[in-house]
Each structure stands twice: as C-alpha cells, then as structure tokens.
C-alpha cells in the first residue's frame, strides 16, 4: 500500500479540527446554520495555514449526503465527503489557477457552471492561487460572480490578495487566514507523534514548530522528514543534523560571549555553528532571532507571551539578557540585518560575519547621553539634603583662590564664569561642566542664580535637570562661595544659537568642523574622555 504523507493523513476534516483559524471556522459554521452562505468566498494567507483545507470542509458541509440540508458538521463518510477528501468529487471541482489561468479556461468554467450538479446540492468551484489568472480571465469571471446560478458556489484561495482585481474582491466574502502560532503547531505535532506512537524528546516540538514560520503544512512536512531518518527517540540534535536547525545552546553561547565582550569565545561559538553545517546567513538569522528574544525580555519581562521559549530556555535567556541593554540589542539586530544582505552576495562571507561579531563584542554597551554623564560619582544624598537646609561650614573643604573666586554680584559671576566651570568640573566631572558651559549667568538675586540656555541647547538644560545634577551643582557652589545658593534654569527669550546657513559649496571638512564644535558633541566627548575617529554621512 502506498505511503500517505503525514500532511495528507492528518489534514483537518471538520471545522473543529482546523488549528489556529477558530474565528473563520466559527463564522462559516454560523453562516451554514443560519442559511446565509455567500455565493463566493476569498481565502487569503500564507502557504500551509489551512485555506484549501477550509475550502474542502466548506464544500463537504454544503454537499454532505447524510443530511437533508447543509450542515456545519459533515459526516466525512458519505460518498460526497469521501470524494471531496480525495479531490475526485464530480460536483466539487478544484482548479489550479497557475496552470489554468487563461480566458479560455474561465470561459469553459462559465459554460459548465450553468448545468446543475450531478448528485449534490451545489456545484462548487475551488480555484487555488487565483491571483495567477490573467486580467482577461478575471474579467470573464465578473458576470457569473455578479449573478451566479443558485446552485453554484465559488471558493478562491490565494497567497497574494493584492494581485486579485478589486472588482473580483468586491464580489466575494474575504477571510484572511493568520499564521499559526508556534505553540499551536507544537501541540499538533505532539498529537501526531503520539498517534503515530513515535518516541520523542519533550523539547523537540517547539523548535520544530518555529522552523515552520506559521505554516502547519510545513511543520508536518518537516516532522515527516525527521521521522524518515529512522531514529528514535526524536531529539533536538536531529533537527541540527538533518534539518539545518541552529543548535540553540551554541546560539546562546554566542550571544552570551558577545554580551561579555569575549571576542575569543564569540568567534569559537560562531566557528562551532559553521562546522555544524550552518551557512553564515543562517548564523546571522539565528543570532538576530535570539537577540530579538533578549530585547523583548528586557522590554516586557521574562513571562512575555511574545517570546516562544521553553521554561528552561526562558531562564537562560533572562540571565543572558542581563549582559545587554535594549539599545545594544537594537544596534546588534540592525547591524546583523544589514550584514545578511552582504553575506548573500559575498565570496568572503565568513570573514564578514567574524568581523561583525568582533565589532559587536568590542563595542561597549549603549547608554543614552544622560545616563552616560550621570555616571560621574554623585555625592551622598543625605549630605545633599543637609546642604540644602543647613548653612555650609567653611571648614568642610579647603578652599583656594582659584577655586573660590570672590562672588558678590552678577558681574563677578560672569567675570569668573570660566573659573567656576573649572572648579565644578574638578568636583563633578567634565560632563557636568560641559553641560553648564552651554549656559550663561542671567541673574543673581537673593541667593538664586539663574542660568540661561539658548533655545538650541534645550537638551543640555534638560540633562542638567535630571539625575539630581542641580543639587550636586548647588552643593558645589555653596562650598566654593561659602554662601547659600540655589540654581534655576531657563531658556533665554529671543536668544537662539547663531547658526550660519551653509552654502551649497561648503566643503566636507567645514561640515566636520561644525559637528566637532557642536556643544552636545563636546559634552559627550568630555564625558567619555573620547576622541572622534570618523564621521559618517547618513544622508
């Protein structure tokens, strides 16, 4: 007896059997119960999600001979139901739109449609990949779709609904089939394995389901290939050996090594994946997928339903996620995504992949500028609180003339502003001093020093106001001036940064000088004690 592949053997037979398309199945069942079955349906969705299967179930429901009228629960045993399952029913005509796409084929269909069914209630036409029909063929369908005979039903299936003429779509009830979730696919695979009495590891179904990318048919076909190896029990190692699935442990090791900035371990893990037979593109894809999981865990927590992992894998991913921040993971994903296009067209794919991995391991974790500058050691919070309410004691810290310019009014502050910035930088770090360098003393009354920022320096003003930086500056100035002082920040009205509009002939070096001299860039450079090595034009 000929072998029947699992995808056919375990094809859904009733609406209740269909996996992952419950809303569509329920809608069609209700339409049959209430006698509101449309004359034409359009089923859309990616391959293997149940479009043709649903069409056959609908056909069986409409033509089941075991009952006197259409039923949402076909018997699957009468001559009509059996013939539909085999694709041999004379009243349910299945047509491949790719090979019967011309106007002559549709004219023949239209001529035959006027004849009543041989034994069933309806003559049903199921046209798969209907988007492959020519424009002339579509136009030939319009008239019969608009005014079909009462005994005719049309069910169209397509993976590309955008290619179906709007005039056709407007004459159909459209149902969009969604991709099936990995968890639903995994449960179905386990059910099949149990019915086939095949031993398997519990961790097998989920990674196999993820490989199917939402297609139940693809998942069952992959399972069929795995069973054909003749090995029992089925293990995750077989996925790597026979189906090219990346070893999840090796991918975890690679991600962890990148998070630890361990270049040697990263290259070793990548080499292990390459030696296992994976291409450089597959390694990049696997790393992107895992970094995506880490990013979601960082953003939403370990229990997020957006992450499809086993409990053990979740715990491991949570630990590895601690080695990254979200900005670093976003950078890694986008960098690898750009890399994969180069890998496909390069004769030096492995060096490209290794260079990118080294780049990821060598780069420090990403921080926004505010977080970066706030890493300067902050003073004790208790001491700050005391300083705000208690007059400072002159003996708290030795003062020098350079550190303690004589401050009595606004003019003395303005005249000594550079010395004040130097003193603040010595105590709070160059980052804070750099932020204050974007401000100008505006007024000094009743112990309140108002610092004015240009409108273009609003970012620096906001950074000064965050992370307790104002309190740090106030405490420092109290020690410097031996008097109580408070700081207020504001944007100077009518004052904007003097920016010259560059002429079209501005040279690249002039543009680079403008960038280097930008106050925000200077602030970051001082905070990092860094040097610019290159400037990339992204336009």
Write the layout of secondary structure elements.
Blueprint: H1 6-9, H2 22-34, E1 40-44, H3 51-63, H4 79-86, E2 92-96, H5 103-113, E3 123-128, H6 135-146, E4 152-158, H7 166-169, E5 173-176, H8 182-195, H9 205-211, H10 216-227, H11 236-243, H12 248-259, H13 263-275, H14 280-300, H15 311-321, H16 326-344, H17 349-362, H18 369-373, H19 381-389, H20 410-415, H21 417-428, H22 430-436, E6 439-445, E7 448-453, H23 458-464, H24 469-481, E8 486-491, H25 508-516, H26 519-528
Parallel strand pairs: 1-4, 1-5, 2-3, 3-4, 7-8
Antiparallel strand pairs: 6-7
CATH class of the largest domain: Alpha Beta
Low-pLDDT segments: 378-403, 496-506
Based on secondary structure, the structural category is: alpha/beta
Give the oligomeric state.
single chain
Principal-axes shape call = elongated
What distance separates the N and C termini? 65 Å
Give the tally of β-strands.
8
Q: Kindly state the percentage of residues in helix.
A: 40-55%
Find the CATH superfamily of the largest domain. Answer: P-loop containing nucleotide triphosphate hydrolases
Radius of gyration: 35 Å
- The total count of helices amounts to 26
CATH architecture of the largest domain: 3-Layer(aba) Sandwich
CATH fold assignment of the largest domain: Rossmann fold
